[in-house]
Amino acid sequence: MTLPARYYTDPEIFRKELERFYFNRWICAGRSSAIPNPGDYFLCELANESVIVTRDNAGDIRAFYNVCRHRGSRMCEEQEGSLPGKRITCPYHAWSYGLDGALIGAPHAERPGFSRADYPLKPVRAEHWEGNVFLHFGTPTETVAELLARVATKFANWRMSDLKMHRRIVYDVKANWKLIVLNYNECLHCPFVHPELNPLTDYLGADNEEPNSTYIGGVMFLRNGAETMSFGGSRSGRAFLPGLTEEQRTWAGFYAIYPNLLLAPHPDYLLTHTLWPKAADRTEIVCELHFPPEEMAKPKFYADDAGNFWDLINRQDWHIAELSQAGISSRAYVPGPYTKREELLRAFDQDVLAIDGE
Ligand code: FES
Ligand SMILES: [Fe+2]
Fold first, then answer.
1. To the nearest whole number, what is the mean pLDDT of the chain?
2. I need a labelling partner for 48 at 20 to 30 A (CA). Which of 83, 158, 279, 340 fits?
3. Ligand nearest to the CA of 321
């Protein structure tokens, strides 16, 4: 049966889920190609937290709470950019920090017993995995590389680290984050919700992996001569990704990596979604399409057939998720029966209940 309504509506359960699913696991913050040079940064914002994700002089990715060690002010306000002088400088009294988080300037702070070394920025654990930046707010028991080793092996030929973002679309969806994950993991709705997608893939032909506690997912085979997922199923002159085998050119993968990365390798691009829960009934979703830079550099490079296609499919999915949220919020809602083709959803619900200690 589906979960009781409170899992989608209760602010207290939402808060607990944020703690357990988001602050106590690796979450995907974005793509490392967004910060190619030392001092480039973007902000990762989750609930009340803001984290500065940057690259240090050695080229390593570092992350720090966006909280000044003087009187606690937020420091970076712009969502992304390049830090002037490769320093994080607080706008309040101009304390400044290096890319390693060390306090390097503290005007007027000098007095006996004061040592800058005592006031570095508070770090957040960051790891680079296949071109993605993952953050952990707590103490991880495993690295991302260990957790996702099977996914990395399966999709090694996509060379995800080499791909660059071509397009980003941000959505504000009035639905609980779990409804997005659930909807992502079944295509029984495809014939009804996605008339443009259904001709390209067999909605009953998904090849799902055995669910585990790190991710759920599977692959969908293209059909009717479709070469990729786009309007008309055409690649519009784009090459297949260079490392793929013949067989890997015939399907798209759809992997929900808990809690917030939806990873979808396609024959000629990578599609990612990251989920950012804002309230029990609201989720921000960042959708990005990534292509090989050499493909993007071609004068005739065109990808709107894929980008606009996913914008349409996304909107169809978000709309149905909002309808789910609205119905589940009704006093008439009671849990309903999953069908035998919804076993991934049941597995996800079991994880939600297990992590909630129920
Ligand atoms: S609060 Fe940042 S310098 Fe004072
Ligand atoms: Fe869908």
1. 94
2. 83
3. 2
Q: Decide whether any atom of ligand 1 lies within 6 Å of the 95 Cβ.
A: yes
Based on the fold, state whether residues 231 and 111 are members of the same structural domain. Answer: no
Determine the distance separating the centroid of ligand 1 and the alpha carbon of 173, expressed in angstroms: 35
Instruction: Express each pLDDT in 253-274 by its tens digit.
Output: 999 999 999 999 999 999 999 9
SS3 breakdown of the chain: % helix, strand, coil, rounded to 5? 30, 30, 45
**Boundary (domain end) residue, out of 139, 162, 196:** 139
Query: Residue whose CA is closest, atom 3 of ligand 1?
Result: 93
CATH classification of the domain holding 68? 2.102.10.10
Domain range for 63: 27-139
Tokens 């101009």 map to which residue?
94
Cβ-Cβ contacts under 8 Å for 263 (sequence gap 6 or more): 151, 155, 217, 253, 255, 257, 270, 272
Query: What is the Å distance from ligand 2's center to 272 Cα?
Result: 14
Residues 57 and 155 in one domain: no
Number of separate domains in the chain: 2
Q: What is the pLDDT of residue 13?
A: 95
Whether residue 172 sits in one domain with residue 79:
no
- Quick check: CB of 71 below 6 Å from ligand 1? yes
Mean pLDDT of 71-95: 98
Q: Is the pTM of this model over 0.70?
A: yes
Closest by Cα among 43, 51, 48 to 19: 48
Q: Tell me the average pLDDT across 289-294.
A: 97
Beta bridge partners of 199: none
Q: What is the atom index within ligand 1 of the atom nearest the CA of 75?
A: 2
Q: Are strands 123-129 and 61-65 parallel, antiparallel or unpaired?
A: antiparallel
Residue 14 has pLDDT above 70, yes or no: yes
* Separation between Cα atoms, residue 69 and residue 81, nearest integer Å: 22
Contact 76 CB / ligand 1 (< 6 Å): no
- Side chain identity, residue 128: H
Q: Please tell me if the CB atom of residue 92 comes closer than 6 angstroms to any atom of ligand 1.
A: yes
CA of 69 to the centre of ligand 1 (A): 7
